Amino acid sequence: MRFGFALDFGSTLPFAERMRTGVPLLARAREAGIESVWIGESYHHRPGPFHLPAPLLTLAHLAGVTPLRLGTGVLLARAHHPRRLALEAAMVDQISEGRLTLGIGLGEDALRGDLGGPDLPGGAAFDSLLDGVRREWRDAVGDGLRPGPVQPGGPPILVGGFSEAATVRAATAGDGWYAATGYSDDLVRTQTARYLERLPAGREPLVAANRLCLIAADRATARARAAHHFREVYDFYGALGAWNLPVVYDPAATPTPENTVGDAAPVLVGTPDDVLAHLRRYRDWGVTDVHLRMAPVATSAEVALETIAHVAERIVPELGG
Length: 321
Fold this sequence. Notes:
Blueprint: E1 2-6, H1 15-31, E2 36-39, H2 55-62, E3 69-76, H3 82-95, E4 100-105, H4 122-140, E5 157-160, H5 164-172, E6 176-179, H6 185-198, E7 207-215, H7 219-229, H8 231-240, E8 267-270, H9 272-285, E9 289-293, H10 301-319
Parallel strand pairs: 1-2, 1-9, 2-3, 3-4, 4-5, 5-6, 6-7, 7-8, 7-9
């Protein structure tokens, strides 16, 4: 199992300030055995606790300050023109000397046709983007006109989504499937099984799950800290109806975070033994990568560093590699 650091910035604090506090955490995470850093993408309608526009710009900066692999978790397909995304991703792959992975999700319907992305229905928009990006990378090889990616065939692409069609797309048009923070464990297990069923023979599986993570020496302390430090993120997902999403999604219903830090929640919160047990379940289901959100907005550096220390002492030694 490989581990990444899902880094949050949020719209409520100056970006430079969050970057100054985030970079030292990445250094400690690398020492702990974390292999990658992941940045998401959001377009806020009100102040929000995580993700900003232009994650590739952020990753281009991080390429110069950390040797970790770089990933988007996730870009929003509806916000990107295929050719421009292909060119910008190739540039980041060049700057980082082949360390980029693209996680891509569809994005909300309000983005359709707004920022240069395909003005098409959901599945068609996603397919158009993936086809266009791959084609641009193929055409760039050796033409001397534009930067091509360093990695043969281009950076790996992880396809996000909670529908069955997303797993088909991930297995056939992508290089893996990506589970968002708010996906329930049942949804992760079901989607992983669907993806593995459709994966062509001989292909290496890649399933990444993004999870809030807080580890402490005792369970009560971990849960109390998570209830306090992760509250903004819980509330944000709850307001969107995107927390603990079930396998059968009813868009007319609004899931509520009935349990935000307990055993039924899609979070890694507790003692090292608690988190190891949770991660072993993921591994048994077929999850290969877990991106740990250890420092969302409102989480102190001290709390994040304690979690990183536990990751170094127990999590990576027992499950990493």
